[in-house]
Amino acid sequence: MTSKQRLQFRRNYYAFWEYQPLDGGSGETPKYFNRPNQTNSVDYVWTLRPTLVNETLATFSLDRVYIPVDAAHFLDRTKGAVQGPGYFGLNYPYIFPTGKLLPNRIPTVNTANFSGLSGGPYPSHSQGPIYEHIRQSDVDQE
User: Fold this and answer.
1) Averaged over 125-131, what is the pLDDT?
2) What are the residue ranges spanned by the domains of the chain?
3) Contacts with 76 (C-beta within 8 Å, 6 or more apart), sequence order
4) CA 59 to chain CA centroid, nearest Å
């Protein structure tokens, strides 16, 4: 490395965790957001002449999103509004009954001139890498 070159490394770790007890508008479908994301980069800058700068930047990010539900406080549709045994609830068969993470999830219902109820699409998760490479040269026209 010379005085006309610069090499820089950077790592940014941003962890985001949030509890949403009132998700879905009813307070009956609480969930969490867990996002332990990170970005890493290496940047190389070389001043070739006073009017010419060359830069190469490589970045790698790992985007992770986990959205689990608070199953202990999730409304069980088979127990009714008071969530006790023996109370009237909604008990209906699913078209595809197997493979449900929350088999007693409340449905999503929208009624005109009335309030809606949303069981939500969660739990959910996704993750994946993001790669980026930039190479540029800047010339100052004096």
Assistant:
1) 90
2) 5-139
3) 83, 89, 104
4) 20
